[in-house]
User: Fold this.
Amino acid sequence: MSTDATHPLEPWARDLLRCPVSGATLVDATGPGGEPLLVSTHPTEPLAYPVRDGIPVLLADEARPAPAR
Assistant:
């Protein structure tokens, strides 16, 4: 299955992933431009990570503050 904005990461795979900065779980989200993101569930400083070509980029230097919900 392809993973992109219309086909998010498989739930079982996402459940295995954690924020590399805080260790928090990650949830599917969409950025301001409609791009897919994974956002940490950290209660005070959630971070957003891009998903490029269906691949989550979970590098600390790629993390950005999560968009407001």
